[in-house]
Specification:
Distance between the termini: 22 Å
Structural class: alpha+beta
Strand content: 25-35%
Shape: globular
Number of helices: 3
Helix content: 10-25%
């Protein structure tokens, strides 16, 4: 990957490693990208279809998969109703696992984190940085981060279940799911109007959102599936309390 692509993937890994954060716009997130011109109504219709297509997040269990340029992948099973989730993140040949049961959060990683071992660790939610934001609460419980993607859409058109258009990568920001951050030289101009495509299933649910690669920025795909399937999460035996050294390494500052 290029340096810019590497930076984007590493920051995505940091955030995905550290939880299920914002899926809906918060006060410190940029407002949705403005739509202008004759296509504004068409774009509004298409984005509303996408928003409606993610309402399942609060209603049923589901699987979400994220793939960033084939270099970073995540697989997450989530049941927000019953407060169960597990996630497996693979990047650069290393695997990280997260399990969430009610208010309990467990983490095991093959990454070399100073002061932390490779056994299962139980996190203290009170010590987790705010940008770690593990939660089953509405608006913060979508491991795919679909709301940030939809908010960054510049133009869109629906053709049946197919939705295509452009997205402003500079507005996607950091969070759970697909994360886009600038490299040392910032964003290329083309990042402000990057092609995307999405697909809804027969029930109107979002099942795929793909962003094309552009000028060194990596391609990325988010998929949802397995709606309504049971999510059984087992507390890991022998989990140790996460060491003090781990917490400063979590979140955006980690």
């Amino acid at each position: 990957m290029t340096r810019r692509a590497t930076v984007a993937a590493i920051s995505a890994l940091t955030l995905l490693l550290l939880g299920c954060s914002a899926g809906a716009r918060t006060a410190d997130r940029p407002a949705p990208a403005p739509t202008t011109g004759a296509d504004a109504a068409t774009t509004t219709t298409a984005t509303e279809l996408l928003r409606s297509g993610t309402e399942f997040v609060d209603r049923t269990s589901f699987r979400s998969d994220v793939d960033i340029a084939g270099q970073l992948t995540t697989l997450t099973h989530t049941d927000n109703v019953n407060k169960r989730a597990d996630s497996t993140i693979a990047a650069f040949g290393r695997v990280t696992e997260i399990r969430m049961i009610d208010n309990e959060v467990y983490l095991k990683t093959e990454l070399d984190l100073p002061g932390a071992g490779r056994e299962w660790m139980k996190l203290d939610p009170a010590r987790v940085p705010s940008d770690f934001a593990l939660s089953f609460a509405p608006g913060r419980n979508d491991p795919g981060g679909s709301a940030r993607l939809i908010d960054a859409i510049v133009s869109a058109r629906a053709d049946g279940p197919h939705i295509t258009g452009t997205i402003d990568l500079t507005r996607v920001g950091a969070g759970n799911g697909i994360t886009v951050r600038p490299g040392p030289d910032g964003f290329p101009d083309s990042a402000r109007r990057t092609a995307f495509s999405a697909m809804l299933d027969a029930d109107g649910r979002l099942v795929r959102f793909s962003i094309a690669a552009v000028d060194g920025m990596p391609s990325a795909t988010l998929r949802y599936s397995d709606f309504g399937a049971p999510v059984d999460v087992v507390r890991p035996q022998g989990a140790v309390a996460a060491p003090d050294a781990l917490y400063p390494q979590l979140g955006l500052s980690g």
